[in-house]
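Quarterly update from the structural biology core.
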Amino acid sequence: MNNKEILPPELLAPAGDMESFEAAVRYGADAVYIAGTRFGMRTAPVNFSYDEISGAVALAHEKGVRVYLACNILPGSGEMAELSGHIRRSALCGVDAFIVSDIGTLRLVKRLAPETDIHISTQAGVTNYETAAAYYEMGAKRVIPARELSLSELRIMREKTPAALEIECFVHGAMCVSFSGRCLLSGYLTGRSANKGDCAQPCRWKYSLVEETRPGEYYPVGEDEDGTYIMNARDMCMIRHIPELVSAGISSFKIEGRAKSAYYVAVVTNAYRCAIDGYRRSPSPDYVPEEWILNEMTRVSHREYCTGFFFGSPKENVEIFYEGGYKRYYEVSAIVLSCGDGVMTCEQRNRFFAGDELEVMEPGKPPFKIVAQELQSMEGEPLEAVPHPVMRFKMKAPAEISCGAIIRRKTI
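Predicted structure, tokenized:
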């Protein structure tokens, strides 16, 4: 690898709001990427005000965690003045890096926030080592190459670029039919530009054929009664392939999901944290995470999994032809607020009943089962169920359980 030392990869988690941000930090992220209320590629999440960015940075830095701010839309000329102000204010909040896809935005960051690192977004479509090296010479500390590259292509990029240039790759989460996230379908069908962060995800919709002389008669593209989701890509999951990613010289493992729930962020971050740490303890080419870690991938809402483009073209497994939606097997029942003397105080997320079998998830540990027993209101009245959103209640604790632990229930 050009005498480059293979270092443990950074685990980079997403956050679309403060609840998700806190979950990412609590469950083991080395860095978290967020966005302000403008100029990020996800407008669906709440995202972060400047005060929230400052608060998130303070929380993260206290824990030794870095914060990267996505500023990666393709801006028009009419947006540049506001973008300049956004860069100035965000830099004052203390973010560790800006994620950019546009050369003009890179130039603005260098001029307005010269002490802040620059990461080149996958939206830039970096497909070769010459382009990666050019961005480095322009001031970028990191590139996120086009997600369409294979591991062998990434290995070549690593070998032929400066050692100080970091390479980050998505290893988990949703994929789409665009090239590196650049898609016109949403803008064409709905007027919502994917390149401004406002994708309506029409690639996930169900499509049928119609013959021009038979309007209103729709024919599914396939033989399934539910139609065919011809552009609905599977989710990526590379948790079984950490040795290959590390060997290729990937500096940062990125989890997709700024529009996902705090529960999703917690589970996936925790699983990859435990898998990376397991590999560090036993750095073998044959390393496979423990079974409970692999099982966590099915504990979140997900589509069927694939390995994206890492091992060549995914056209054999990238699309789900007969299943348009997510698989959901678990839901969050409550969050633990405190625990002591055999009793935990919790805050409800979804209704459950006394006697239900639940699972407790804590950072860095396999989940374990408990039974909902001795449910009480905060006033000490016995409860048969916990029916009200965010209500606080008490429950018997079979062991000492950490603050912030997630209690979940299998629904299928």
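The chain has two domains: 10-172+236-286, 330-410.
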